[in-house]
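Researcher: I'd like a candidate sequence for this fold, 156 residues long. If you have to choose between options at a position, lean toward the conservative one.
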């Protein structure tokens, strides 16, 4: 299979930097899975996420903070033979990691987290509206069991 496992931390972080969203999987107290797409920021081994304090994902996370995340970038179709469906595939670089979410409640730490999230998308600084910072729910996740993969026809 055209898979290369990426072990180098800088190369793993380069994939994370290039991703614009992640899928965050949770498990409710009945063992039922739930997954949502999330924007994020990354700094020093932690993923930073934000969202409305209400809703199903927050209900689950308050009861079970264990999550699994995945993200991918560099999508592109390759093929060896235009006529053969099984020769088609998709190039990608991706991450899968586990973690346990930690809620960020301190005001200044919330601002720091928002800056980290914004830096993932926009290379500038922002000022934040105090009520909005107080209202938003911020949480961070130390990524564990991180695996990074480069898959595709032309990875070698
Ligand atoms: C690219 C992308 C980035 C996003 N980034 C963020 C982010 O940074 N922070 C954030 O909070 N949210 C983000 N969202 C939205 C997120 O995926 C959830 O839809 C949202 O957080 C609501 O989740 P909830 O569990 O509170 O939903 P609830 O409002 O409690 O959902 C009720 C029901 O609606 C369904 N549902 C929930 N979300 C969706 C959906 N997106 N599409 C279809 N059905 C749905 C589920 O079946 C759920 O049971 C993003 C979505 C996308 C596509």
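Model: Candidate sequence:
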């Amino acid at each position: 299979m055209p898979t290369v496992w990426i072990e180098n931390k800088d190369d793993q972080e380069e994939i994370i930097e290039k991703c614009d969203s992640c899928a965050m999987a949770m498990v409710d107290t009945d063992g039922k899975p739930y997954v949502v797409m999330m924007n994020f920021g990354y700094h020093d081994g932690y993923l930073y996420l934000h969202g409305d304090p209400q809703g199903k994902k927050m209900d689950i996370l308050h009861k079970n903070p264990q999550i699994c995340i995945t993200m991918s970038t560099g999508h592109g179709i390759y093929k060896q033979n235009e006529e053969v469906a099984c020769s088609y595939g998709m190039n990608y670089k991706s991450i899968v990691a586990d973690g346990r979410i930690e809620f960020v409640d301190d005001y200044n730490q919330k601002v720091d987290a928002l800056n980290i999230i914004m830096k993932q998308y926009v290379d500038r600084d922002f000022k934040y509206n105090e009520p909005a910072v107080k209202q938003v729910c911020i949480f961070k996740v130390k990524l564990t069991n991180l695996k990074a993969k480069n898959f595709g026809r032309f990875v070698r």
